[in-house]
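Reference record
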Amino acid sequence: MDGDTLYSIGELARRTGLTVKTIRFYSDRGIVAPTDRSPAGYRLYDIDAVARLDLVRTLRGLGVDLPTIRKVVDRELSLPEVAAAHAEALVVQIRVLRLRRAVLMAVAERGSTPEEMELMHRLAQLSEDERRRLIGDFLDAVFGGLDAAPAFAGVMRSMTPELPDSPEGEQVQAWVELAEMSLDPSFRAMMRRMVEGQAAEQARSGMTGPRRDIAVAVRDQAGPALTAGIDPASPRADPIVAAFTAQYAHLLGRPDDIELRRRLVTRLESVNDPRRDRYLRLLAVVNGWPAPERLAPVFDWSVRALRVRTRR
């Protein structure tokens, strides 16, 4: 092409592959202005118009809006600046699309009603600050007034979900279910009772710092017995039960009697609530942690063993 040659819109359309209508549209908006006009008043364009139109077509294909394109071709904005801004915008768009996909997958798997789908979509679309407020409200309902103790402050941190900026579909689905649970008043009340029981035990023990939880002690004693296939009602379970009830009695500063063992049954049943286990499993998915150990069989064994030994 000769640098001094001027081209009509029709010729420019053939060279660029764009339609006459599209070139006229860009020309009317000053993005690709004509260089001159023919004696009959038709627009004429020089060789630079071809390069400008190629750039416009590329930027439009990337989703750049026309006002920004005009600034680029007029050299008010550099291409690197535009590329960086749109790359960041694409990150946000990708995150939104992942959230939408995860919600739709969850709806497909759960057979949710329109109302449930709306709730799921709303929960998935919460900003980071909104998610923190939602979980903060739940944790305050569970630990409020107790969180000053170092042990409980650590537990609160360990129960806080942190949805990544670019979550996988599985993480979004887990977050939605976890958020629903945290809004459930009965779940909050159950968790509060469990935490208050722990706080009362710690107060009776006279310990101010972190201590070994009785549920952990029961797990350590009863776990091997369960693995070994020991019947919780058999005499072989007697020394195992005696070991963890003695530890509980020492913790509370009271005798190892039937009342104490019944109290321990209540304590283990609260820890063994399937909703607590579900929360911890969802939390691990959201935070990308390994799945927690499933302790329900161990606590079931321990509760059965205690009940056999507390019958009057």
About this structure: The first helix runs from residue 9 to 16. DSSP finds 15 helices and three strands in the chain. The two ends are 105 Å apart (CA to CA). The chain has a mean pLDDT of 84.
